[in-house]
Design brief:
This protein has about 350 residues and is mainly beta. The protein is built from 1 helix and 54 strands.
Length: about 350
């Protein structure tokens, strides 16, 4: 089994930070799967699209930007994990290839430059964001739902109906009968991909900040266009007028803001440009997939993983470190990609993810 593990800091760094210590599966051939992109070209994902079931990676898929992988996923042997990734809660500070199938059991974010090998599977609640593209030969399983706003390219056949010209769906459409999405089609935010969907070789994946089930977004939080919260797609930037409990994996796009009183449940990941407007608590391990500027007044709980290249209270961290005690942020603090926040971490107003 291949793991990413945290390392001890050098004596020099440890002296500067007294509070820092170390204290395969087989998949059945999809039934009634619908071919996506039968022609040359790709199908574009325009916003948060959730996997409901296990989506199978049928050929090597590249990670073009940080991609959150849900627990229950399987990364097949040959998957390449690039530096800055988080694998099962451990920071990966160097490029590595998995030598055997690895089951995802906790916080996992694949950094840009990673490659997901054929035979992998993406579990329920994996959310693919705008910028994802499905290559020709991908299949979309019956039971998938194309949200309103999806564009069916000319030459497509959906549920037995042929499309001579590009058509935008005005209502959500469930995929059931014979369906082929031609290259140039677009899958709108809030769509779902049913179990058995296959992602073909040459596809590229990316996700945005993921808010896991069990989280709470407080009133005053702002979600930008293409965000999907509790299955609802936001076509425009919207400020939440009341506190919202997250009952299914949600995705908030770059430029979103999280208000005071929010809680990020285990499995959440800070990926795209996101601002913390007020005290926000980590209810479990929260991955940091891009550089995070941690505001003064924040508290990093014991167990927080600080990736190499980070700065904590003005001290540079040369090697990945695990905090053995709660650490108040009083000076310049930047957490590098590959860090993760332990439960009970509190992020103060002004914290932001680049």
């Amino acid at each position: 089994m291949t793991f990413c593990i945290s390392k001890r800091v050098s004596g020099k760094v440890a002296a500067g930070l007294a509070s820092l210590l170390f204290g395969a599966s087989q998949f059945a051939t999809p039934v009634l799967a619908q071919v996506v992109g039968g022609a040359a070209g790709v199908i574009t994902v325009a916003g948060g699209t959730t996997v409901v079931g296990n989506a199978i990676v049928g050929g090597a898929a590249s990670v073009s930007g940080a991609t959150v992988v849900s627990a229950g996923s399987i990364l097949a042997a040959g998957t390449v994990v690039s530096a800055g990734s988080v694998l099962n809660g451990g920071d990966c500070d160097h490029y590595q290839a998995l030598t055997e199938a690895t089951t995802v059991t906790s916080a996992t974010v694949l950094a840009s430059g990673s490659t997901i090998a054929a035979g992998s599977s993406l579990a329920t609640n994996t959310v693919l964001a705008a910028g994802t593209s499905l290559a020709a030969g991908s299949t979309i399983e019956s039971g998938s739902v194309l949200a309103a706003g999806s564009v069916i390219a000319a030459g497509s056949v959906v549920n037995g109906v042929g499309y001579a010209t590009a058509t935008m769906l005005t209502t959500a459409t469930s995929v059931g009968g014979a369906s082929v999405l031609a290259a140039g089609s677009t899958i709108a935010a809030a769509s779902t991909l049913a179990g058995g969907t296959t992602i073909a070789a040459g596809s590229t994946l990316i996700s945005s900040t993921t808010i896991a089930q069990g989280s709470v977004l407080a009133a005053g939080s702002f979600v930008t266009a293409a965000s999907v919260v509790n299955g609802e797609a936001f076509a425009n930037g919207t400020s939440l007028v009341s506190t919202m409990s997250i009952v299914e994996a949600s995705s908030i796009s770059g430029g979103s803001m999280i208000a005071a009183g929010s809680t990020l449940a285990a499995g959440s990941a800070l990926v795209s440009n996101t601002m913390i407007l007020g005290a926000t608590q980590a209810g479990g391990i929260v991955a940091v997939a891009n550089t995070a500027m941690i505001a003064g007044g924040s508290s990093l709980a014991a167990g927080t993983v600080v990736a190499a290249g980070s700065i904590v209270n003005g001290t540079s961290i040369a090697q990945t470190t695990v905090l053995a005690a709660d650490t108040m942020v009083m000076g310049s603090t930047v957490l590098a990609s590959g860090s993760s926040l332990a439960a009970n971490t509190m992020l103060a107003a002004g914290t932001s993810v680049i």
